[in-house]
Design brief:
Antioxidant, Horf6, Chain A, domain 2; 7-stranded mixed β-sheet; 5 helices; 3-stranded antiparallel β-sheet; elongated; Glutaredoxin; 221 residues; 29% helix; alpha+beta
């Protein structure tokens, strides 16, 4: 007799442009709500487990770069399915063994409610740990970008900071950013939307813009 295949639950991952799901949870720094961060940018990231080596490198580097995030009005918020006591013990261990103070909260999510709300638990990989998810949430609590990594591979905190800077630059200047863009680099001017404007773009380039063709123009800001 053939047994029916077991269905694997597919996580519902919030999408770019959607409101980030509200939640209330305990953390290493007390009770916390997503709406506490309204008016600021937020990098909300999950890690698989406390007291694991790859996660230790990530939390440590986030802590070292925390001042850089704060300078651009961006907060950090971590999460795993461990308990508050585990988070406290681990962050104390990081402080004592690696001389790094974890000065941002880490959400305790033992029942996985928050993790499942954000699609951080991927059952084909593990149903007892979160993957390495990153959500970039803007001051209006809208998800602007997201990144997922497997359990075995650590993320680049420098790249995460760069993404926040790129999103802020896009919003402030109504431009796009090219591959590998960093603050101070040239940005992409939106292409014209009419034939007349395309002709004008090619003919009337100025010293502030670099017109390669009607659809491809860069400038410094």
């Amino acid at each position: 007799m053939t047994m029916p295949a077991t269905e694997v639950e597919v996580p519902r991952i919030p999408r770019i442009g959607e409101k980030a799901p509200e939640f209330t949870a305990s953390s290493s720094m007390g009770p916390i709500k997503l709406s506490d961060y309204k008016g600021k940018w937020l990098v909300f990231f999950s890690h698989p487990a406390d007291f694991t080596p790859v996660c230790t490198t990530e939390l440590s580097e986030f802590a070292r770069r925390y001042p850089d995030f704060k300078k651009i009005n961006c907060e950090l918020l971590g999460l795993s399915v461990d308990s508050v006591p585990s988070h406290i013990a681990w962050t104390r261990n990081i402080r004592d063994k690696f001389s790094v103070s974890i000065d941002y909260p880490v959400v305790a999510d033992r029942d996985m409610k928050v993790a499942r709300l954000f699609g951080m638990v991927h059952e084909p990989v593990s149903d007892t740990a979160t993957v390495r998810a990153v959500f970039f949430i803007d001051p209006n609590q809208v998800i602007r970008a997201l990144i997922y990594y497997p359990l075995q591979n650590g993320r680049s905190v420098d790249e995460i900071l760069r993404v926040v800077q790129a999103l802020q630059t896009t919003d402030a200047n109504k431009v796009s950013t090219p591959e590998g863009w960093r603050p101070g680099g040239e940005v992409i001017v939106p292409p014209p939307q009419t034939l007349e404007d395309a002709e004008k773009r090619v003919k009337e380039g100025d010293q502030n813009t670099k017109v390669v063709d009607w659809y491809f123009t860069k400038k410094k800001i």
